[in-house]
Amino acid sequence: MSAPDRSTALASARALLEEWAEEGVERSAGAAPVPAAAEPPAPSVPAAPGARDGAQRAPVGPPVTQTDLLDPTPALTATTLDAVRAELGECTRCRLHEGRTRIVFGDGNPDADLMFVGEGPGAEEDRQGLPFVGRAGELLTAMIEKGLELRRGDVYICNIVKCRPPGNRTPLADEAATCRPFLDGQIAAVRPRVIVALGKPAASLLLGRDVAITRMRGHWQDYRGIPLMPTLHPAYVLRQYTEENRRNVWNDLKAALERARSGD
Ligand code: SF4
After folding, report:
1. Whose CA is closest to atom 7 on ligand 1?
2. pLDDT band at residue 79 using 50, 70 and 90 as cut-offs
3. Which of 53, 258, 38 is closest to 161 using CA atoms?
4. Element (H or E) spanning 230, and its range?
């Protein structure tokens, strides 16, 4: 490679790394790109082999291909949260079951107007079996209770994957795809008026495309007829604790609550 070519390649790599850093994705050299939207399996719960609390993400496995980013949109079986949980059982459908202490299914009001979807359980969530109860969860809870003046129990909170990824890494595409029918089932059961997607992986999975969260946050999207507000993950806000990030998330949550209340 000539010197000018090397220089151009280095500049491109630097720009890409800066973009990942901007989106709260921390990776080492050789690690996979962001696992984002994953191809969902068949409508019924599939078989497969087999947070985020501000912690450093570990490098992850194979790169996600464009195929992984397609969204064939599996049919939903509208049911109750209890039925979805019963179907989940003591799930071993993906490799994440190997390191978990508890399945972290979801928490909150089964008839909530507002539903928060994050990425996956962290260490404290894994210990307690509840979503968003670590440092990032404390921030989310404060925003819900002190900011929006709701009780945490008024909303419903869950994650893309129900088992803690090792080292708090981002869920891989196949893990997200395997767990997705349960997330779809939860959304179908709760039927929220508004979904708030917390961070890039959740927004990407739900929207079926790779999302640049810092650019998309604050802009209304649609998840199967349900308004979806993408915003920054609380763990990212903790890492980048700037007034701008806090204000942006606050504005996103206010907009989500207003829309949920207006019933539009
Ligand atoms: Fe099952 Fe989901 Fe846990 Fe994987 S992450 S083992 S699919 S519950």
Report:
1. 179
2. confident
3. 38
4. strand 226-231
Please enumerate in sequence order all residues whose Cβ is within 8 A of that of 3, keeping only pairs 6 or more positions apart, or say none: none
Ligand 1 centre from 32 Cα, in Å? 21
Residues 32-72 have pLDDT tens digits of: 333 343 333 333 333 333 334 433 333 333 333 334 444 43
Please state, in angstroms and rounded to a whole number, the distance separating the CA atoms of residues 8 and 10.
5
Q: What is the pLDDT of residues 1-37, one digit of tens each?
A: 444 444 443 443 343 334 344 444 332 233 333 334 3
Give the position of tokens 């399996």. 41
% of the chain at pLDDT higher than 90: 69
Q: Which residues line ligand 1 (CB under 6 A)?
A: 88, 91-94, 96-97, 103, 161-163, 175, 178-179
The helix or strand, by DSSP H or E, that contains position 257, with its residue range, turns out to be helix 243-262
CA 104 to ligand 1 center in whole angstroms: 9
Q: Please name the amino acid found at residue 104.
A: V
Return the CATH superfamily for domain 78-262: Uracil-DNA glycosylase-like domain (3.40.470.10)
Mutating to test ligand 1, I would choose from 85, 88, 160 the residue with most ligand atoms within 8 A of its C-beta, which is 88
Tokens of residue 51, six digits: 């947070």
The minimum-distance atom of ligand 1 relative to the CA of 91 is: 1
Tell me, what's the pLDDT at 38? 38
